[in-house]
Amino acid sequence: MLTCKEQVARSSDYLDGQLTFRERLLVRHHLMFCPNCRRFIRQMRLMQATLKRMPQEPVEGVDALAEQLAAERLKTSCRSELAVARELAPARLRSSRRLLGALRTPAQASLLATASSLLHAKR
Fold first, then answer.
1. How many CB atoms are closer than 10 A to CB 5?
2. Contact criterion met (CB below 8 Å) for 7 and 37
């Protein structure tokens, strides 16, 4: 039986149908007994489906948005964490909702993930 680490290493090939019959059986056997890896595979399938549905044409202004988020991060890094959280939490929620609605490419999804990690790094 595969370990979880081995399962994760094979997960992309499994989802893309690039494993041999024997490897596929090993993966399926592991998934029968490991709820965490089943959840991981479900998340990977959802991510694949989401990325396939996104249009490929880039949206203008993504670079400016990245620079704006980086500048905001620099401004807020000098303040206390509590003050920043109280001041920006509602704005972050509104911004996140707007960004989620505007995402059109995988690059934009990646930008959102990076920006989110930057904004929440101080928490």
1. 7
2. yes
